[in-house]
Design brief:
Length: 111
């Protein structure tokens, strides 16, 4: 569940960063800094004094956050500036579904 919610948040933040075409991809650069800080924060947390079960629950987030950071960096470097850019559509994107439908993972235009 933690990883799924992280995926929802990551997708929503990138969608938000790509909303305004007038800003180009400057918002991706800002979000990249945020994700980089998130990685540093979670590494610090895991290195700290945590109960074993909490550490096991939180440690996988490092992998997820590092991947998120790397993808955001690649999107920025490739000049992605819109939600319909192929390089963004080619990513696995996570969307919560309405009602009791669960969640949806999308890549390109498939579900």
């Amino acid at each position: 569940v933690i990883i799924l919610v992280a995926g929802f948040n990551w997708t929503a933040e990138i969608d938000k960063a790509l909303e305004d075409p007038a800003t180009g991809n400057a918002n991706l650069k800002v979000y990249h800094k945020t994700v980089t800080q998130d990685v540093e924060n979670i590494v610090t947390l895991v290195r700290g004094d945590l109960p074993k079960l909490t550490r096991k629950a939180v440690a996988p987030l490092i992998v997820i956050d590092v991947h998120a950071r790397d993808v955001v960096g690649e999107l920025y470097e490739k000049g992605v500036s819109g939600a319909n850019d192929f390089d963004w559509l080619a990513q696995l994107r996570y969307y919560p579904a309405v009602g009791d439908e669960g969640s949806t993972v999308r890549m390109i235009s498939t579900t």
